């Protein structure tokens, strides 16, 4: 009788609708305020690029809003939980439901159901919209909000080793033999790792082998002299295979693309612990919405006339924000190998699920 976990159909709809409306309201408020503050900080940089105007500001907002929604949706679920349960408690509705024979878990069941839908929607939203918006915005910011060079794929701040030499570029666009590097800098280094010559060029194309720099200029360290080099081919050891193993941005790739990137990096012998943790977090992150009603539930129980409703709301908020702090700390530990990737992504979720359940049971008693 799994459906006995839920109260009556009417009460389930009443609580679920109330909770969903508050989630949407809190999320809209947070995104609106944060988007205004973000525009105040970025408008000068956007308009500084020649030709940019109101259309580019709107485009920036359209790319930034999905990131804000993805980041603050779990916070919205937490705050909506506290607002919903504190209001129900203050109006003695929780007392009436418990007097009717409902347990704390049954009262929370509609909220958990809505949170589960939010978690699924958050995962789909992150995979289909946020990753694309992040990739586009990162590429745009890498050229200081100037027009982005055409190309199906763009990657920013990439670098490749050719023995002691290093080839760097602000942007990589295209794929395979059609790959184009923009904002290129090539460093020639001696056996001691000291730079002997620096070559800069606005773009480079694959020369099979090597990379053909166009309109290049060189600086010789020993003589401190600049020279115009025109077209020059460098880095013959940087192959298309290395280009495929470019620096991976886990925020700009969906879970399938990131999985393939991890496999490619592992086959080349590179460390993938940080990326594997981010891969798992693409699942555990959206599921944090399911955890928020449990952590914020302390705000809804206890007698309203005791005067502790506000204190309980603060405790629920503190538990929720503590989860996000621990979650970020665990990911940071996983980035440099302090935690295994699976533990870094899932340990905070499991820990605070147990903490929330313990607090709920103790509160009900």
Automatic annotation (TrEMBL):
Signal peptide residues on this chain, from the entry's feature table: none
GO biological process, one term: lipopolysaccharide transport
Localization (cell): Cell membrane
Membrane topology classification: Multi-pass membrane protein
One Pfam family this sequence matches: LptF_LptG
Record keywords, A-Z: Cell membrane, Membrane, Transmembrane, Transmembrane helix
A GO cellular-component term linked to this record: ATP-binding cassette (ABC) transporter complex
Transmembrane intervals: 20-41, 68-87, 107-125, 287-304, 310-330, 342-361
NCBIfam families in alphabetical order: LptG_lptG (TIGR04408)
Protein name (database record): LPS export ABC transporter permease LptG
Originating gene: lptG
């Amino acid at each position: 009788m799994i459906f006995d976990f839920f109260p009556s159909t009417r009460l389930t709809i009443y609580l679920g609708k109330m909770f969903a409306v508050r989630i949407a309201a809190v999320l809209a408020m947070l995104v609106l305020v944060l988007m205004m503050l973000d525009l105040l900080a970025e408008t000068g940089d956007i308009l500084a690029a020649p030709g940019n105007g109101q259309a580019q500001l709107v485009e920036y907002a359209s790319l930034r809003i999905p990131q804000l929604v993805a980041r603050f949706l779990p916070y919205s679920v937490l705050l909506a939980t506290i607002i919903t349960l504190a209001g129900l408690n203050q109006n003695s509705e929780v007392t009436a439901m418990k007097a009717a024979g409902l347990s704390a878990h049954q009262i929370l069941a509609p909220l958990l159901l809505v949170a589960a839908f939010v978690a699924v929607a958050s995962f789909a939203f992150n995979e289909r919209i946020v990753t694309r918006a992040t990739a586009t915005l990162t590429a745009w910011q890498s050229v200081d909000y100037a027009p982005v060079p055409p190309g199906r794929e763009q990657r920013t701040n990439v670098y490749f080793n050719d023995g002691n030499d290093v080839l760097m570029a602000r942007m990589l666009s295209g794929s395979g033999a059609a790959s184009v590097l923009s904002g290129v800098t090539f460093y020639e280094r001696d056996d001691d790792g000291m730079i002997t010559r620096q070559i800069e060029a606005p773009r480079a194309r694959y020369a099979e082998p090597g990379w053909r720099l166009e309109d290049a200029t060189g600086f010789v360290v020993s003589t401190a002299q600049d020279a115009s080099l025109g077209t020059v081919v460098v880095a013959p050891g940087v192959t298309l295979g290395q280009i495929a193993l470019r620096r991976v941005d886990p925020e700009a790739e969906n879970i399938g693309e990131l999985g393939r990137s991890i496999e490619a990096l592992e086959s080349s012998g590179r460390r993938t612990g940080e990326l594997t943790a981010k891969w798992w977090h693409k699942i555990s992150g959206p599921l944090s919405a399911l955890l928020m009603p449990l952590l914020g539930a302390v705000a809804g129980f206890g007698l309203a006339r005791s005067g502790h409703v506000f204190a309980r709301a603060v405790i629920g908020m503190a538990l929720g924000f503590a989860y996000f702090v621990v979650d970020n700390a665990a990911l940071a530990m996983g980035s440099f190998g302090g935690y295994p990737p699976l533990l870094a992504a899932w340990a905070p979720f499991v820990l605070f699920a147990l903490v929330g359940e313990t607090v709920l049971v103790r509160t009900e008693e």
